[in-house]
Structures are given as C-alpha cells and as structure tokens.
Automatic annotation (TrEMBL):
It comes from Cloeon dipterum. InterPro entries: Kinase-like_dom_sf, Prot_kinase_dom, Protein_kinase_ATP_BS, RTK, Ser-Thr/Tyr_kinase_cat_dom, Tyr_kinase_AS, Tyr_kinase_cat_dom. It is an enzyme of class 2 (transferase). It is a single-pass type I membrane protein. ATP binds at residue 197. This is receptor protein-tyrosine kinase. It catalyses: L-tyrosyl-[protein] + ATP = O-phospho-L-tyrosyl-[protein] + ADP + H(+). PANTHER family: TYROSINE KINASE RECEPTOR CAD96CA (PTHR24416:SF621), TYROSINE-PROTEIN KINASE RECEPTOR (PTHR24416). GO terms for biological process: cell surface receptor protein tyrosine kinase signaling pathway; positive regulation of intracellular signal transduction. The keyword Transmembrane applies.
C-alpha cells in the first residue's frame, strides 16, 4: 500500500497531465470553430441573390425591343398575306383556263364551243376571241350562283355557258358578229338563234368604248318592230358580248346587191319572187319608222346606211349598229371631238365641217339611204374620192336622180338634203310621205329600167376617212 505522501504525488501528476492535454486541444478547437464560421459565411454569401436593376433601366431596355419586334411581326404578316393572295389569284386564273376543257369533256353539256363541222363560212384569221368561244368558262361554272347574282344586279347579263356558237356572220375592221344559240333567253324556254357582237384582237380602247356605248344605248330602248332588239350581254369579263336578235337575211345592203343577180335570173326564167318596187318603198318606210322612234327617244344614230340595216326572213327592216349612236335627250345636238373613221358619203355638211350631229343630220343620211335602196346597194357619189365628195357637198352638189326612179321618190331624198338643217323634214314627215306612196298602186321604182353598167359601183368604204 502506498503511503499518504505517495498517493498525494500520484494525484498531482494526474492533474498536471489533464491540464496539459486540455491546453494542447484548445488551439485545435478554436481552429475548427474558425473554419466552421468561415464556411458558414461563404455559404450565406453564395445564397444571397444578385442585385436587382432599377425600373428605369428595365423600361429603357425592354420597351424599345418590344416595339421593334411588333413592327417586324406586322410587316412579316402583311408580306405573307399579299404573297398568298397573289398565289391564289394565279391558281384561280390557271383553273379558269384549264377546267372548261375538262368540264366539257366530262359533262358534254351546252357549253360555248365550236365544231369545225358546223362552220359554213371561212373562219377569220387568228383571233383571241375565237379561243374564248372554244375554251372559255364562266363564273357560274366555277362559282355556282355567282352568275345568277350578277343577272339580278343587271337584268341584261346572260351566262356565257348558255351560248353555243355556230359560225361567223360578218366582220369589219375591229368587230365580228357570230350566229349563236342561246338557252333560255329573253323569257323563252329552250334554244333560240341569236346574233352575238364582239371585238377582234386588234381592237383598241376606242373600239371597246364604242361597243360599250352601243350596249348602253340599246339598253335604253323599248322593243320596236323596226329597231334591232337587245336580248342580253356578257360583260363580267373579257371578251365583251352583245347579244341581239337574229335577222336571217343579214344586211340590207348585201341583200340589195344580191338581188341584182336574182332579178336577172328571174327575167330569164320567169320567176316572180324577185324584189318589187313596192317592197323597196316598204324598206324605206320601215327604216323611217325605226328612225322616227329613235329620234323620239333622243338617240342620234350618226351612221344610218343600208349596211347598218338588218332584214328578217319576213323582209322586215331593223335599224342596227349603234356604235356611233349617242343619247342626246338632254341637248339634241352632239359635237364630235374624237378622231376616227367617218361615213363621209352619208354625212350632212354641218357634220363634215363643224362636227355637229343631230336628228336632222340623221335625216340627211336617210336621204342617202333611200338612194342606196333605189340603186340596189350602189355606192353614193360613184367615181368620187372622199375629199372630192366633201368639196361637192359643200358646193351644193347632190346625188343625181337614178334613171329608173320616179320624181316622187327623188323629191323626198332631195328634201332631206337641204343645206339648212331646219328646212329638212322630220322623220315623222318622211313616214307620212312614204306611207302615201305605199297606198297608191304606182311603181315609183321601175326596176325593169335598172341600168346594169359600172356607173353603180359597189366599193367597200369601211376604212374611208378624212
């Protein structure tokens, strides 16, 4: 056993060892505590959010960007819309040109088409409207109901697909007339034979305006037995069609000229169906009635001649071709201001020199028309050029009395050629004068004395101008 002093020494040594270990561990604890505090501070610093910019800097940066983006978006949308519209139009145009052929091939319906076997006369040279007859498609074919809507807006509009062409009836410098068949036109069910007037490929704006003017004049007219009647039109797209009643015997001028050969043939073979004096007088009377109606409606024809009068199977005359006509109901006098071809040999002095047209200048033309009828379609002022005709008319020279024409007929002509428009008869007066001749039994045109010589030439004057 240890003594008391020994125990006391051991206890003191243990106390010294414990104190020594505590003193040695103390720096390590402090060091660990410092590292822990530092890492906590760094973690706190990393978790703190970045500083937020002020509202003014946001407004100055974001708003201009948004505005520029909106403008670019609108511009891009507009460009895409326009581009899409153009593509759609091109596609529709292509369909309009291609689909009619397929439609007619599949359906075999009454479409506007031609067959070479139906042509009875020579076809005109290359013409863009010829292709329109054969391959044209209508709005009603592409968009059902649209043609009917157009017809309600204008009672004259007629669907193109209900027209079928037969052959060409005649043509001038810029226009053509076709014989066609129309389905359900003018209130009649089924097919009807009609005449369709249109323009040739070489026609310009002036000729198109004339045809449109003719259409507008005809729309104002009520039915009259001696005026060609409008049945309908196709104006919703090119080409423009004016649909009129069909006169089977064609132009009076051609009919008169052809009757010369018929008359000679009849004289040799005893035929009695050739023209008579009474029929020729009736032609004048009928045209006078038609012109009386037009003048009462305030219409100045400006191109009255035998070539512009049509003849039906029943030999009824109808005043036609209103391309030069003007509606003068408000002022009665028309002053021409545009250039173009003129019917010089049928024109009154005031029309030739002052470009003035009125109902009385039409009366002058009617006198020349009477001379044409009497001479069976001869050219007025035979042997004279256009410039010579103008000079002769100014100097008071008038067409001579034909050898086979009685004075009663020639006097009416001569009254129409008075230098003063006020002294010329009205169309109502010419109707009365001719009616008196018709009721008598006298032959005022002695056709058996008709002179068959070159004096009565038949020259085409369609291009004559001064």
């Amino acid at each position: 056993m240890l003594s008391q002093p020994e125990r006391r020494n051991i206890h003191n040594e243990n106390a010294i060892n414990v104190n020594f270990r505590c003193a040695a561990e103390l720096p390590a604890v402090r060091s660990t505590s410092s590292l822990s505090n530092l890492s906590s501070k760094n973690a706190t610093d990393q978790q703190k959010p970045p500083p937020t910019p002020s509202s003014d800097s946001l407004a100055s940066t974001i708003l201009p960007a948004l505005a520029i983006g909106a403008v670019l978006a609108i511009a891009a949308t507009s460009i895409l819309y326009i581009f899409r519209q153009r593509i759609c139009r091109k596609a529709e145009t292509k369909d309009q040109l291609v689909s009619p052929l397929k439609q007619r091939k599949d359906s075999g319906g009454m479409a506007l088409q031609t067959s070479t076997g139906n042509w009875s006369s020579q076809r005109p040279p290359l013409n863009r409207y010829e292709s329109a007859w054969s391959r044209d498609t209508t709005i009603s074919q592409l968009e059902p109901g649209l043609a009917e809507k157009a017809a309600q807006e204008d009672r004259w509009e007629f669907p193109r697909h209900r027209l079928k062409v037969f052959h060409i009836l005649g043509e001038g410098c810029f226009g053509q007339v076709w014989k066609c068949e129309a389905i359900d036109i003018d209130g009649r069910e089924g097919p009807s034979v009609v005449a369709v007037k249109t323009l040739k490929d070489n026609a310009g704006d002036k000729e198109r305006e004339d045809l449109q003017q003719e259409l507008q004049v005809m729309k104002t007219l009520d039915p009259h037995p001696n005026v060609v009647r409008l049945l309908g039109c196709c104006t919703e797209k090119e080409p423009l069609f004016v649909i009129m009643e069909y006169a089977s015997l064609g132009k009076l001028q051609s009919f008169l000229r052809n009757s010369r050969a018929d008359r000679q043939y009849g004289n040799l073979h005893g035929r009695s169906d050739s023209l008579t004096s009474r029929e020729l007088t009736s032609f004048m009377y009928q045209v006078a009635r038609g012109m009386e109606y037009l003048s009462c409606k305030g219409i100045v024809h400006r191109d009255l001649a035998a070539r512009n009068v049509l003849l039906t199977t029943d030999r009824v005359c109808k005043v036609a071709d209103f391309g030069f006509a003007r509606d003068l109901a408000s002022k009665l006098v028309y002053e021409r201001k545009s250039e173009g071809r003129l019917p010089i040999r049928w024109m009154a002095p005031e029309s030739l020199y002052d470009n003035i047209f009125s109902a009385k200048s039409d009366v002058w033309s009617f006198g020349v028309f009477m001379w044409e009828v009497v001479t069976l379609g001869s050219t007025p002022y035979p042997g004279l050029a256009a410039a010579e005709v103008v000079k002769k008319v100014r100097d008071g020279v008038r067409l001579e009395k034909p050898e086979h024409c009685r004075r009663e007929i020639y006097n009416i002509m001569f009254y129409c050629w008075d230098k003063s428009p006020q002294e010329r008869p009205s169309f109502s007066e010419t109707v009365e004068l001719l009616e008196k001749l018709l009721v008598s039994e006298t032959d005022y045109i002695e056709l058996e004395r008709f002179p068959d010589h070159s004096y009565y030439n038949m020259v085409s004057l369609s291009g004559e101008k001064i």
